[in-house]
């Protein structure tokens, strides 16, 4: 530790940190728009400027190292005037539609403008960029709201190891975009939406389908089925000021019913179904000799990463559709038949923590008997917006149950949304299937936690099997490079976002400038809620889900049957 002085107060700070971190650690709320600890240290927005004794110019606190005896001032007239002027310059070319903006009230620029007392005044200008939206099925880029903080660029490169964005053009014509201004759908972007989480304004947002969903809900000729992903129940509470990781499954069901959906189901049901199929696929590949490793295919960001960077491993991908897609396919076949509705009159809406699920739903591979499996995907944030539009406050709703039969799940499904959860669920079932009555072990805690790559060796069917789990695109690439070098694995789970789906790009965004939602610790709080759900369930192995058993008895026959393959499986091509 060293001693420095903030506004003449002596404080002890870690050697090697920067002035901004030192101030924040000591209760000084220095504003900043570009800095994100461990991810972005661009020093570009200049909002965090402070006065440093002995230095003629004001200095950006985020890139100024602390030193023994350093004396800084955060609250002088000079600092306040300069900060205000910096923010006014940003506002001078910023889109002015704040009242109608999707990030209104959790926009960091708006908050900082308010804090520093910025006005348009003499600097009022025409925004440099018209509100020109660059659209694709998953993310919308609006350059008129970009403040060039370059957080999106840093998150994509440093957190995910992809590097889709870079600055193009010069001066105030600069934009942060994929090379040659390609649409993100045509670049190596994996649609994970981590850039959306990092964006301090609404320059990057999900492609919203709220209006389309309201429309089908009101259309009396349509039966609208909603499914919510495992992660939603442990994260949507944040949108209603509940502590991170609060599980609100029953209130969520009540909200969905009041929004007007006709059938209220959960993707967790299909997660159990996926495990039954995938565990059988794994055992089958083990017996037949491959292709191994079997690699999970339920994270659409990972699928896109694989297609861009590891096309030679496409045959290794599980042919199981993701639970979201299996759910949609089964809803429009089995369930539609059961309730006597023509598949064309059924609309399936998925609520996902993920922007890439919007991309997945639009993929041509995700159709069954010519029909799209999932029609619209909403993020956690969009569902919360719909609830607010409908005057629904999660805190005031009663607790209700999901509908049956596609609303029942075991504990194994609940943990899907945490890194290692799919693997743990699959191994629970694979071990029970191969060990017969003994049922084997239930918990495999070695797959849990924040390590970027988790490796485990287990005995299965008298054979040593090597299992790998990677989360975050960066770690996925590290693991795949090892596989490419010939390292042996039998089964690999990959999730494109750090922490797994709990850290998806469609999850709640805070207006906290420290961006806690990008940190592993925050994401693991969400995961804790899901592990607690699993622990309290009576049934904790996917194949014990009686609704799943019934689907096989009444409709699919057995795992990997011809019908199961037609409905629940797909193939990717290079
Ligand atoms: Fe996930 Fe899924 S666990 S990808 O993160 O497998 O998005 O929550 O819905 O499909 O179930 C996301 C979460 C899902 C799917 C499931 C899987």
From TrEMBL:
InterPro entries according to UniProt: 2Fe-2S_ferredoxin-like_sf (IPR036010), 2Fe-2S_ferredoxin-type (IPR001041), 4Fe4S_Fe-S-bd (IPR017896), 4Fe4S_Fe_S_CS (IPR017900), Cytosolic_Fe-S_CAF (IPR050340), Fe_hydrogenase (IPR009016), Fe_hydrogenase_lsu_C (IPR004108), Fe_hydrogenase_ssu (IPR003149)
Q: Which domain of life is it from?
A: Bacteria
- Its primary localisation, in coarse terms, equals membrane
One GO term of the biological process aspect: ATP synthesis coupled electron transport
Q: What are the 4Fe-4S ferredoxin-type domain coordinates in residue numbering?
A: 137-167, 178-209
Q: Which organism is it from?
A: Desulforamulus aeronauticus DSM 10349
The protein, known as: NAD(P)-dependent iron-only hydrogenase catalytic subunit
Sequence similarity? Belongs to the complex I 75 kDa subunit family.
């Amino acid at each position: 530790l060293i001693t420095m002085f903030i506004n003449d107060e002596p404080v002890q700070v870690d050697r090697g940190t920067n002035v901004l971190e030192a101030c924040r650690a000591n209760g000084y709320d220095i504003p900043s728009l570009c800095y994100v600890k461990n991810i972005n240290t661009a020093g570009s927005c200049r909002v965090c400027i402070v006065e440093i004794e002995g230095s003629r110019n004001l200095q950006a606190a985020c890139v100024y190292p602390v030193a023994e005896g350093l004396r800084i001032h955060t609250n002088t007239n000079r600092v306040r005037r300069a900060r205000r002027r910096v923010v006014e310059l940003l506002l001078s070319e910023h889109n002015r539609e704040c009242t109608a903006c999707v990030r209104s009230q959790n926009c960091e620029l708006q908050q900082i403008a308010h804090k520093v007392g910025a006005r348009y005044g003499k600097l009022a200008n025409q925004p440099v960029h018209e509100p020109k939206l660059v659209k694709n099925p998953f993310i919308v880029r609006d350059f008129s709201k970009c403040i060039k903080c370059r957080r999106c660029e840093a998150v994509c490169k440093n957190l995910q190891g992809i590097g889709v964005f870079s600055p193009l053009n010069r001066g105030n014509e600069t934009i942060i975009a994929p090379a040659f201004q390609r649409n993100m759908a045509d670049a190596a972007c994996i649609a994970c939406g981590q850039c959306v989480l990092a964006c301090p304004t609404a320059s990057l947002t999900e492609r919203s389908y709220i209006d389309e969903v309201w429309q089908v809900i009101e259309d009396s000729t349509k039966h609208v089925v909603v499914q919510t992903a495992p992660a939603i129940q442990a994260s949507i509470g944040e949108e209603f000021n509940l502590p991170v990781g609060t599980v609100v499954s029953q209130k969520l069901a009540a909200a969905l019913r009041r929004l007007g959906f006709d059938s209220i189901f959960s993707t967790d049901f299909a997660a159990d179904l996926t495990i039954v199929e995938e565990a059988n696929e794994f055992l089958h590949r083990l017996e037949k000799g491959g292709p191994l490793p079997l690699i999970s295919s339920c994270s659409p960001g990972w699928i896109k990463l694989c297609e861009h960077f590891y096309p030679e491993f496409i045959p290794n991908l599980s042919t199981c559709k993701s639970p979201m897609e299996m759910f949609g396919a089964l809803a429009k076949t089995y369930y539609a038949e059961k309730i006597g509705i023509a598949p064309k009159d059924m609309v399936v809406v998925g609520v996902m923590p993920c922007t890439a699920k919007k991309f997945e739903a639009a993929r041509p591979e995700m159709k069954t008997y010519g029909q799209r499996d999932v029609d619209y995907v909403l993020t956690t944030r969009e569902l919360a917006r719909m609830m607010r539009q409908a005057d629904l406050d999660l805190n005031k709703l009663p607790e209700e149950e999901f509908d049956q039969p596609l609303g029942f799940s075991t504990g194994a499904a609940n943990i899907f949304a945490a890194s290692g959860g799919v693997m743990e669920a699959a191994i629970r079932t694979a071990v029970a299937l191969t060990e017969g009555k003994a049922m084997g072990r239930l918990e495999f805690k070695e797959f849990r936690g924040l390590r970027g790559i988790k490796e485990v060796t287990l005995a299965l069917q008298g054979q040593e099997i090597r299992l790998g789990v990677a989360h975050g695109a960066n770690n996925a690439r590290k693991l795949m490079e090892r596989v490419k070098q010939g390292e042996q694995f039998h089964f690999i789970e990959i999730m494109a976002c750090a922490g797994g789906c709990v850290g998806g790009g469609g999850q709640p965004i805070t207006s906290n400038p420290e961006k806690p939602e990008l940190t592993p610790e925050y994401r693991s709080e969400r995961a804790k809620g899901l592990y607690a759900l699993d622990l309290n369930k009576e049934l904790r192995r996917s194949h014990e889900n009686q609704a799943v058993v019934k689907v096989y008895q009444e409709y699919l026959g057995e795992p990997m049957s011809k019908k199961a393959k037609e409905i629940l499986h797909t193939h990717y091509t290079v």
